[in-house]
Amino acid sequence: MWIILYLAAILALLLALQSLVLIAFKEPLQWTFGARSRQPKTLKLALKLVLQSTLIGSIFLFPFLVGSTPGAYYGPHIPADKMHYFLYGQAIALVLMGVIFGIELACGWIYYKPNFPARKAFSKIAFSALSSFTVVAVEEPFFRGIILQTLLGAVAPGAAIFVGAVLFSAAHYIRRVRTYWPSVGLAVLGLWLGTAYYRTGNFWFCMGLHSGGILAIGIHRCYLNYRAPAWLVGTQTYPIAGAIAIAVMLVGTALTWRLAAGW
After folding, report:
1. Residue range 147-188, pLDDT digits in tens
2. Could you tell me the CA-to-CA distances from 227 to 97, 110, 177, 238 in Å, in that order?
3. Which of 18, 181, 182, 252 keeps 20 to 30 A from 175, CA to CA?
4. pTM score
5. CA-CA distance, 186 to 180, in Å (whole number)?
């Protein structure tokens, strides 16, 4: 399937650009993407710019490869009269994440303890609020608008959503990571987002779900800490990787499949 070749080309370009940046900073080459903790801040910023510019460039390039233009290809995915579904998705994600954290707090699996001074916590929450928009503006057109849409034209919807979810999860591991357990939760999130896109036919609801989740996770990192195992409650970085969150997302996926057609 040619979409796999397209993704491979993106990874190859990303690796080549990253290598040029590392050479410019006289750093050793690496096969994983993203910066390491010991590397200077300027290098970390440069590598982030490489990643984001490559993704954004691939989003704009893809429509031309299929005989269209960015406006004509993505325009139908963001109908103005359905913009309010973004807010619905955001609210649902925030409420459900609140329920998940509430259950885990009540059971003593996580506990409240501010991790930063008030001013720093506020700045981190503000950054999470901003990134909740910028991240979904890139990831949803890429993973749902390009990858899933192409898969839907090649295989049955269920298979397309499943493969798209696996690719969505796998993309989070092109960087160096400590554990691969969160891949399960990310794949389930991918199932929900893919189902939302397929059943609604546009980006708004899945973008809202994704955005609300990012914001909720950003807030909780400032105040909540973990004592239960990761398989049950996830981690501070990926609280959606725990069994409680996975169960909630699976229910959300089923309800979205049943109720969201044509939104």
Report:
1. 999 999 999 999 999 999 999 999 988 877 777 888 999 999
2. 18, 6, 21, 14
3. 252
4. 0.94
5. 10
Q: Are 62 and 100 members of one domain?
A: no
Let me know whether 185 and 57 are in one domain: no
DSSP string for 28-80: ---SSBS--TTS-HHHHHHHHHHHHHHHHHHHHHHHHHTT--HHHHHGGGS-G
Residue 74 lies inside a defined structural domain of this protein: no
Distances (CA, A) of 165 to 80, 89, 151: 27, 18, 11
The range of the structural domain enclosing residue 11 comes to 1-67
pLDDT in tens, 229-246: 999 999 988 999 999 999
What is the tally of structural domains in the chain? 2
- Length of the chain counted residue by residue: 263
Residue type (1 letter), 207: M
Residues 54 and 89 in one domain: no
Residue 111: its H or E element: strand 110-112
Of the residues 67, 94, 124, the one at which a domain ends: 67
